[in-house]
Write a structure and sequence with these properties.
This protein is α/β, with parallel strands linked by helices. The protein folds into 2 domains: 224 residues, FAD/NAD(P)-binding domain (3-Layer(bba) Sandwich); 182 residues, D-Amino Acid Oxidase, Chain A, domain 2 (2-Layer Sandwich), CATH 3.30.9. The chain is built from 11 helices and 17 strands. Strands 1, 2, 3, 7, 8, 9, 10, 16 and 17 form a 9-stranded mixed sheet that branches. Bound molecules: flavin-adenine dinucleotide. The site of flavin-adenine dinucleotide (FAD) has 44 residues, from helix 1, strand 3, strand 11, strand 14 and strand 15. Flavin-adenine dinucleotide (FAD) binds next to helix 1, strand 3, strand 11, strand 14 and strand 15. GO terms for molecular function: oxidoreductase activity.
């Protein structure tokens, strides 16, 4: 057995973590019922990372197979990017001609089915997922942006996604608090919806834990994975080594460690013939949450059209083989505004490459605020300092990959080792499609969405 060391542990985070009442710690070395303890814990599948991607992969294995699953995290659910996610699962800003469209649509359908299945069990999806079908507005203020919005509406309608172009006056009727000026316009997608990331993760984790009684689900939280253990032949990963335990994955080991996945792979290849460099980089984002915001109510989720450019900035502009982005890349801030299920006003968001730093930055908080005020003049009546006092600033590190699409698939050299990482600003929205794809691959089922754009081989920039 070869031991591949990994010292990659997320920084101490400054964001509020999972509510204490929901935290699940399992650091005991005692064997649990239903699990054979042979110098370590044995499961069919081990998932590394309990963000939205890891937890939904675990959920999919639990609901669609008989396999047992262990999920390992150096902290607790929501301590990575997921805990800072705003929660929009919108189609309005997505590109029907883009490579990710098919996966996006599949994932949206799966979220809808998830919400419907809850309703059919008399569980309110608003309560447990923060599920709200508010519709979304992609808004522009200049004639150039309005032209972009017209093209966007045409493209979405061509593929059958009902979207309407709203003039300035029509927009005012939909969203009276928005001020865009006379050239303002919006693409309106009435069927779009949002979740509350923390709430949804809490529910998914609770539902996963119902499988614990039959020995099919175990969590190892506060246990960073420190090494991957290979079989004697070297062709498979047979277990993960954590700070406290060895956890075997008989059928598969899935790496879903968000922005930490890249450094993890870096350590993996050090001692192996694998020539994969997976440059997932942290792209820091701030989000402002103003609790019980009563002065105004938003009818829809709102995003400025400039967001699309900020999200995709520099995605394809690298030379092959060049590492991801320069850490000094400029800060970008684009306005996104939602109201969550509790009536909190949530304002986003910033993007910057500053390594693994998760410190809150006052100047960025102010920039997000000032950007929002440009669109919502009523906010001028409020004092940011007062709102912050009774609110929260969330910081998260989006897992960014050059090319703008995640890796979802296995390493040819390590047939039972899978990666699901690099979802940048779309991890919540793409989670269920990603989970389905990984589980179908492991089970040998036909995959519902063309997996080629997400395979390790299709990320030529990352192959050395
Ligand atoms: C401000 C902001 C707003 C966003 N808004 C949206 C949105 O509205 N809609 C949307 O779709 N997406 C949004 N996103 C993006 C989304 O949050 C991410 O794409 C998604 O959360 C990534 O999930 P993940 O599970 O891959 O990573 P993470 O949530 O970061 O989870 C990775 C986990 O791996 C664990 N880990 C790391 N190293 C180890 C190790 N060695 N051993 C064990 N565990 C380890 C970490 O502790 C962490 O819990 C937003 C992101 C930010 C920052």
């Amino acid at each position: 057995m070869a031991i591949l060391n990994s010292s990659i542990i997320p920084n101490q985070l400054t964001t509020k973590l999972f509510p204490p009442s929901k935290q699940v710690h399992h650091t005991s070395k005692k064997p649990r019922p239903g699990i054979v303890h042979v110098s370590g814990y044995k499961f069919d599948v081990v998932v590394i990372g309990a963000g939205i991607i890891g937890l939904t992969i675990a959920r999919q294995f639990l609901t669609e197979s008989n396999l047992s699953v262990a999920i390992v995290d150096s902290h607790v659910p929501c301590s990575g990017a997921t805990g800072a996610g705003q929660g929009y699962l919108w189609k309005v800003h997505k590109d029907p001609e883009g490579e990710k469209w098919e996966l996006s649509m599949r994932s949206h359908n799966l979220w809808e089915k998830f919400a419907e299945s809850l309703e059919s069990q008399n569980i309110d999806p608003l309560r447990v997922l923060g599920w709200k079908k508010t519709g979304s507005l992609l808004v522009g203020r200049t004639t150039e942006e309005s032209a972009m919005l017209k093209r966007k509406v045409d493209k979405l309608c061509e593929v059958g996604v009902e979207t309407v172009l709203l003039s300035h006056d029509e927009l005012l009727l939909e969203e009276p608090s928005l001020a865009l000026g006379v050239d303002g316009m919006a693409a309106f997608l009435p069927d779009d919806y949002q979740i509350d990331a923390r709430c949804a993760v809490g529910y998914i984790e609770e539902a996963n834990r119902k499988f614990s009684a039959e020995g099919r689900y175990t969590t190892f939280y506060h246990e960073p994975v420190t090494s991957l253990l290979r079989t004697a032949s070297g062709g498979e990963i047979e277990a993960v080594q954590t700070s406290n335990n060895i956890i075997y994955g008989r059928k598969a080991v899935v790496l879903a460690a968000g922005c930490w996945s890249g450094s993890f792979m870096q350590d993996l290849i050090k001692d192996s013939d694998t020539k994969l460099h997976l440059p997932v980089k942290p792209r820091k984002g701030h989000l402002l949450v103003f609790e019980n915001f009563s002065s105004v109510k938003l009818n829809h989720g709102i995003m400025e059209v400039g967001y699309v450019n900020h999200q995709s900035a520099a995605l394809g502009s690298r030379d092959p083989g060049q590492d991801a982005l320069d850490d000094a890349e400029e800060l970008s801030v684009s306005m996104t505004a939602t109201m969550d299920k509790s009536g909190n006003l949530v304002l986003g968001s910033s993007r910057q490459f500053v390594g693994f730093n998760t410190q809150k930055d006052e100047s960025i908080i102010r920039s997000i605020w000032e950007r929002a005020v440009e669109f919502f003049p009523f906010l001028r009546k409020q004092k940011l300092e007062d709102l912050i006092k009774r609110g929260e600033v969330r910081v998260g590190l989006r897992p960014f990959l050059v090319g703008g699409r995640p890796v979802i698939g296995n390493l040819p050299e390590l047939s039972n080792f899978y990666i699901a990482a690099g979802h940048e600003g779309e991890g919540l929205s793409l989670a269920l499609g990603t989970a389905e794809m990984i589980v179908d691959m492991v089970l040998g089922n036909s995959v519902k969405v063309n997996p080629a754009p997400y395979s390790v081989q299709s990320h030529p920039l990352e192959l050395q």
